[in-house]
Amino acid sequence: MVKGKFGKYGGQYIPETLMSAVLELETAYDYWCHKPDFLEELNLLLKQYAGRPSLLYFAAKMTSDLGGAQIYLKREDLNHTGSHKINNVLGQSLLAKKMGKTRLIAETGAGQHGVATATAAALMNMQCEIFMGCEDIKRQSLNVYRMELLGAKVNSVSSGTGTLKDAVNATMREWASRISDTHYCLGSVMGPHPFPTIVRDFQAVIGREIKEQLMNVENRSPNAVIACVGGGSNAIGSFYEFIGDETVELIGCEAGGKGIRTAENAATLTNGTVGVFHGMKSYFCQDKYGQIAPVYSISAGLDYPGVGPEHAGLFDAGRSRYVPVSDDEALEAFEYLSRTEGIIPAIESAHAIAYAKHYAQSLGKDKIIVVTLSGRGDKDVAAVARYRGKTVYE
Amino acid sequence: MNKIEQAFLHEKAFIPYITGGDPDIETSEKLLYALHNAGANIIEIGVPFSDPIAEGPVIEQANQRALKAGCTVDWLFELVERVRAKIDVPIVFMTYYNPVFVYGNNKFAKHCAECGVDGLIIPDLPFEERDELYEQCNQNEITLISLIAPTSKSRIARIASASSGFLYCVSSLGVTGERHQFDDSAKLMIEQVRNVSSIPCCVGFGISTAEQARQVANYADGVIIGSSFVKVIAKYGRDSVDEIWRLGRKIRQAINENKIQK
Predict the structure, then answer these.
(1) Which residue in the set B51, B99, B149 is minimally distant from A289, CB to CB?
(2) Domain range spanning residue A336?
(3) Is residue B57 within 8 Å of residue B63, measured between CB atoms?
(4) CATH of domain B13-254
(5) With a cut of 50, which residues of chain A have pLDDT below it?
(6) Do A120 and A180 reside in the same domain of the chain?
(7) Residue range B75-87: mean pLDDT, rounded
(8) What is the mean pLDDT of residues B127-132?
(9) By the CB < 8 Å criterion, does B173 face chain A?
(10) Is the ipTM here above 0.90?
């Protein structure tokens, strides 16, 4: 494999000004990722600060209600800050610290990555600035205040569609103007090499734990692993351990929005074509002239017109498959899991729950599927209430 | 010697930028004539892109206006073909890589050659990734122009010695748009280039006034100015042609105050 490439995807398609920064990061990561004391320090943080390992929970009621495959939930929602994002952020901020950086900048969609980054910055005594689309700021005002409470500055990005893609643009621009003391703590398995590899490595703990935990209770590997995909970090983190084991089906759930035949979705691998954007070659929602499409999803975290290059490679190779899940299906799953298991999932994760519900029913009771619950749904409660016609003040 | 290289033979080059199709394609055509008449040695036409990550707000908004006006790269190919009948100033497209890649690298390079586009500047196609387009450009005699930045350091020698046309020297960190002052980053970069290559070095990003253009032309072979022109276009729209000519003349004269030293 060529370094930083996943099949023909990946690469480093960024302005020359940023090349030194990504090369510096690549060198630093290659050095530190093998150092036992770095890994030990990170593992200690994951254990004592983030609360790892996260639980692998057998969803008995959901399983019996659906009457098909046994369903396990990988509870990333129980991590400190409420999602899988902390796994990556602790790794990157520790790396940034080793590199002598004193300032973290990051994009955020739903605010989960922004909160995680602001948290790590507070913990590690670093400055922090978050870039967030103005539409997302409206949708997730509680997370905005949370970041400010943690000491971060939140910048509203009003260019373009005012969502995650524009927040990434703004963060890249900011990085290009201030590199020497600043690390761009990218939130997903996307962007220029080495980010897709670094973020995947820091998220791969999810899949490693799934394998070990399931082995302990069931003495076997799962038949399928299901996760939601925006940029794709919780999904690749869940999949990575199982890529070599062809008996494990890997399924990513994309934002189908208001329907994949409408213009309002973010189903990149269902509808997209190959392009080059945000530093990487991958699939993107775009028009025939390569203009990036304004995408839509009820979930701010999945509202992104591209997907990480490793997913693009797995998709082309047929190793994983990707299904669109609509807003309505995700909402229904959001409410279903709340009532059935007493677990309120993030609206992003609800996309994976929705497909799992459907898929479990098509499988026999001897089969096991693991669904990664990437985050908790507290942040979405008010928006869901509004969607259902109830006014709730955050 | 190709047309781009010839542009540096007799004077320090004045290289203005406009976003193609802003405010509309007819005005763009008139602006190209105005810039030519003002004494531009090379003209950069920006191919509008939805997400121009190397641009500041002025050029980003110009991209949005052009896209809103319906401008596509096919319109710009036709535009260049039309103006070629009247002016032979070298024209380069400043485009992000995705519009090229999705169009098809080979088809894009071929259309450039057919319509009279002389070169391409692609800010998000760094040296490490350029091979996938380089061959198609070569075959069609399109110059793929490389960029260097203050952060390039040890990369400068490698990039400079493998470049043709001219080297686009990014003046300072950050995105396009006005700067109040410059440090000597660009000057130092050019000195580094001179150790390995005699390729013309043009400085861009942030040069907005005639005085800044004069200062930069002291040590550079050419001066690239974008946001200042785009600002005028944003203000006057279809009526910006005369203003653009006036601004172009002013900058041309400022650059000319520096005699060419060869």
Answers:
(1) B99
(2) 52-82+204-387
(3) no
(4) 3.20.20.70
(5) none
(6) yes
(7) 97
(8) 95
(9) yes
(10) yes
